[in-house]
């Protein structure tokens, strides 16, 4: 099913050639629902404890159209694994190795690349030095080099400063480096705007920049557009990627869905439909983003929808589309005539789905405890300012 | 992990002894999202095509607390497999056999029973004779006997008449027989009230009766209560089971979620949270129902929530609770202090989750094309009457 | 503008001749918003204190199409005027007289009849005897006879028993008697169903029966239909009237909007549009109700909408329609082209108006303190039962 | 009830002395609901046709706490009176005279000032010259001088250019001049930001500047704050006023509620409660605004709520508060105990009122036909830009 021409090409060759690259979805949320990840610490020990479950999820994303198998190594740094009472009997290295093996095994079943992933560290938030933080990333690199991943992703950084440090470490491996911040249009937690964040990351050596997590697809696409404008204005060159939430977050402020009262156990009403994903994929493509994937909340069918929307551009459909049919075409085989009548694009495109929850509102007032502590005094300053802005925003957009 | 005392006991022994039996969730919806089932025909050929995917889902439910592995044989009758242009290269027998093997393999990994499942047939709806319809069920029984399942479930029947025929066929195997209709408080599609349906099914030989699918948990519990009252009033004896949707359906009429405009591809905003499942499990238990499971929309974490709510009654927690913690206790290890502050029962119990969809309503106006054609003229009569009732109901409960 | 033929005909002559009679709207809520009535006691001393304000409201309803000027004498019984710390310097007789004069003055400006109104008493609720309660109504009758009103309305009774006593007193005057309970389909506060209530009231001598207040228009129409069926089944004869709220109350239980958390100061989001009123008027007419008016929440434009919807049946439009135009036709003169594009029936009929309140839900959980104490032990019994029913209802229709 | 000290002081003396001035509410919407104004043309011929109705509304606002009786002369320019097929038999001068007499009559009953009002003209929109447009305002001034109003208000201008012309004409009378644009934070229809608009208007001679209509209270307060900052930055001096809608408009774009699909006949669900008005009054006061009133949607009880919230600052309550009681205190006299339990501030402050409309959303997608044509090409440019901004905004804040 995989197109011949793409085989054994690297991520940069693909992007340089104008190919679309489809990412996978978020493993920690998907595996939490399947029973293998604990919400709170969100650590990936399942790579060792339950390899079948992790392998199966990789396969589902591959089948849904993903070109990248990202190692299930989120928060797999030693400082995070022992953070706040999370007691694990595995070292970071053990988890990283097991995750690499699983990703490679499934990647080899198709045309996918393996991306080794690192993410922000508690060490940075507790004001450890640049040297100490970099040492953490370095340890993970040792595994990724040993396991020979195809490229690297530094993802889920709230502070561009830490992300820059990560890029500098990843860069030393010689592998292609992608980096995504978990920020929205208001910028990082120190108040650095998206455009400036992107410039700093490209200057640090990243070839692919973008955002992941924390906000819904259209907000993330908007943020990456701001990054792209910054990079182009600085006459730099980069590729762009986006891996958003699969949750609607119109009511979020600068820190994203973490602040929503529904995080993380009552987000169900916000889950995007597959049709929402069609819109997302199209908007991301129109914005010039060519690495398009997902994060928390994405299930395989969400990635499939992205792959189906971009089927014309890619020239083929994912394997899982054999069990779908464009825009609900499979409903043509349903027993009820009124369900058969829904086997058409305009029906699903225009539907405004009800929540079935008449006692619940459509929007929430996010928690406003301010942003997580970090390195500098700028933080406190930013906090005060953003609180004011948020309040104004809130007063404007809310009603009661 | 499984409590010693239960091993090798049958379903009736367990229920007679007052044990709680936790069912699994709906496979067709869960596997559709994972890419292995086609919405519309909803047939279970994945049991042959993708056994790993089916096995993994069985394991997740087992780990979440399910005591029953139901064979993935929904709509696996020959007449359904070739219905409306669905072209399959497998016979019903082949699918049923593969599904039995998968269910048994995983059941043996824990303390679970295997239940062979049959469901309503297109033959009944197209007015085939009792003999013809029964022959279809008989073919499936041949496989279930050969594979020696532990008991049988006839599920998802809209007409009590067809369900009765199924029970009569299943009964001949000598295995325990459970039967669930997909009806609400208004009764079956011929207008037979739940109480009368239950009496007929018990008289036909079913030892366990109840409802599955089509309505949300509290509506299903209410319907089973009506069945129980009917059985008790008739001085009969039965056990009760309930396997509802994991979707809120306050706006449904007699035919359930099939009529909702969101069926089946935009139901996301209606998905129950794990906390909704706690309420469901408690209500079902208080109603005297002892076989408590799920149907479409249930993911493993929903079943885990049922098992956690009923932990005190069962005396143990499911394996998957090692990755959970009661009422969000795992959040105590989160990095953000305001998320840590949510690690408590009253927070999640009282939260009214927002949809994040300000342009969407809370309720839908269901399609009212009338019920699916069936055997008798009563149908048309019922149709007219129920339309009127629905309209009144709708006028009452809607607003605009 | 008034059709010649109707002049000087009485209420019964009109109804017997098959004429439509349009009532007015609720004075206490309208005058509360204008600053002349105090929410809580809801007493009508403004008839003396601010006659201009009361006269103006009468005129607006007359102009909107009302055929009846109901005296502003709600809760104007002596026992109510001094209830719970409400200190008034006027006697009930004084208020009743002033109100009669105002109603007559405006009625004479058009083709309207004057209806003297009485309502339920605190004396009944505090278990005074039939004799005592009747004496209160009798005092009001003395004024109405002296002022020679055209007919009498006993309205806003929660208990059919007290309403029956009122009808018996009113009947003695020889004037035509109308009576409305403030009940819904579940019946009065002692649990007497609408059909039986209606039969008792007709047997007590009422020529016109129906409901007012407490529920939204379609719920009230449904209740009057139940009354009508009861009366017809008993082979009695009556005319029917309905004067509902102008608030959507899909979430109310047996005691109506009093139980809603929004009562009485945050009901704004529930106010019916004029287009909702068109539907109401049509449904009421189709149900065979010929006295169609309004209660709390009705403003003059709501009554005008009723009169416009029933314009074809009445053969003329109300005076106030000179400032309207059917279905928004006046918008054809608006400066903005997209507003001019809304000057059409299907636009307004199909619009689902947004609340502009994203943090607010669509439905409320009503207070369930049980019904107000009354005469008998049946009450307590009813209370328990209805609480159970409500809970079931609530569980069914709510979702969270 | 009126405080002695204020008597016979002019508007500027009051504001210079730091007094609070409370405006009235919008007459055209209030009188449309009472049956005297036609939606579409929105012209004020009722001043002649139905003086009792207009006088009564003036009295209600006076009683609610208004210090200003604004002449009912909205859209009373000759070019508007004959616009788009609106056929009136009165001249603008006749209407303006009648309106002045009514306002003065009621103002004299209390401590109120009379403000002569002019508003934007169709002549400006159809590109008439400055001379022609000014001539229209001049004609109205002749009446206001003859009738000796206390001060002048130019209100409801979408273009600061036309407003400036109006101020220049009004200024020539020697009367104090207030001016309000119907704009939001995005500025006027040519894209001039609020700060710059305010500076231009002050430079043209206005002593009081602000906004009215088109947006909800908090949005209007925010806009006036932007104006104030602009004036202060320019080292000019002015007083500030705000007269917003009584409708929630979180979903509006630059042209305000005109674009909402609910305008003007289905805005009911958006009506502010009295408690929303408390928040508004406090926010306006905190922003340094001292002339605080209302526009479309305001009923007398809304103005009373403003006057009650600012009672401590003013030192007295309005006359109409004799029929209210702070924060629902009057409910202490209600017959139902659970309603009596609501006689407290925190109950009403925290209530999130339900709409009772489960089939309706909380937000609307406004019409985006672009802004009304005006004088310059800037318009088209602005239109394109703002459409893009809106789209982005919409994508961000909406969800589906």
Automatic annotation (TrEMBL), chains A, B, C, D:
Origin organism lineage: Eukaryota, Metazoa, Chordata, Craniata, Vertebrata
Source taxon at top rank: Eukaryota
Domain Hcy-binding: 9-310
Listed pathway(s): Amino-acid biosynthesis; L-methionine biosynthesis via de novo pathway; L-methionine from L-homocysteine (BhmT route): step 1/1
UniProt GO BP: L-methionine salvage; methylation
Keyword Zinc-finger: no
Role, per record: Involved in the regulation of homocysteine metabolism.
GO cellular component: cytosol
This protein's name: Betaine--homocysteine S-methyltransferase 1
Amino acids binding Zn(2+): 213, 295-296
Keyword Nucleotide-binding in annotation: no
Species of provenance: Mastacembelus armatus
Record Gene3D superfamilies: Homocysteine-binding-like domain
Listed Pfam families: S-methyl_trans
InterPro entries hit by this protein: BHMT, BHMT-like, HCY_dom, HCY_dom_sf
Needed co-factor(s): Zn(2+)
């Amino acid at each position: 099913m995989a197109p011949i021409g793409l085989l054994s090409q690297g991520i940069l060759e693909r992007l340089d050639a104008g190919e679309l690259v489809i990412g996978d979805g978020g493993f920690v949320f998907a595996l939490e629902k399947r029973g293998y990840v604990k919400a709170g610490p969100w650590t990936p020990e399942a790579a060792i404890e339950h390899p079948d479950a992790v392998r199966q999820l990789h396969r589902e994303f591959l089948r849904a159209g993903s070109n990248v198998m990202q190692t299930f190594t989120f928060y797999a740094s030693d400082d995070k694994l022992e953070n706040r009472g999370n007691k694990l009997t595995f070292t970071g290295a053990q988890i990283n190795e097991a995750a690499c093996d699983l990703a490679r095994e499934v990647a080899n079943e198709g045309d996918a690349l393996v991306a080794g992933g690192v993410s922000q560290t508690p060490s940075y938030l507790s004001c450890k030095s640049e040297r100490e933080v970099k040492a953490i990333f370095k340890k993970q690199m040792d595994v990724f080099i040993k396991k020979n991943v195809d490229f690297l992703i530094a993802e889920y950084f709230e502070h561009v400063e830490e992300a820059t440090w990560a890029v500098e470490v990843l860069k030393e491996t010689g592998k292609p480096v992608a980096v995504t911040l978990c920020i929205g249009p208001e910028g990082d937690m120190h108040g650095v705007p998206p455009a400036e964040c992107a410039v700093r990351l490209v200057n640090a050596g990243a070839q692919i920049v973008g955002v992941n997590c924390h906000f819904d697809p259209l907000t993330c696409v908007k943020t990456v557009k701001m990054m792209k404008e910054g990079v182009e204005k600085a006459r730099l060159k980069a590729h762009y990627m986006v891996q958003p939430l699969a949750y609607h977050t119109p009511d979020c402020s600068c820190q994203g869905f973490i602040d929503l009262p529904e995080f993380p156990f009552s987000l169900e009403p916000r889950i995007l439909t597959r049709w929402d994903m069609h819109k997302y994929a199209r908007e991301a493509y129109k914005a010039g983003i060519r690495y398009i994937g997902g994060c928390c909340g994405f299930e395989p069918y969400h990635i499939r929808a992205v792959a189906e929307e971009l089927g014309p551009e890619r020239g083929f459909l994912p394997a899982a589309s054999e069990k779908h049919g464009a825009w609900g075409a499979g409903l043509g085989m349903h027993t009820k005539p009124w369900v058969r009548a829904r086997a058409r694009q305009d029906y699903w495109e225009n539907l405004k789905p009800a929540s079935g929850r008449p006692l619940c509102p459509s929007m929430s007032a996010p928690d406003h405890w301010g942003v997580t502590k970090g390195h500098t005094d700028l933080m406190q300053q930013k906090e005060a300012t953003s609180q004011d802005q948020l309040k104004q925003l809130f007063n404007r957009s809310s009603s009661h």
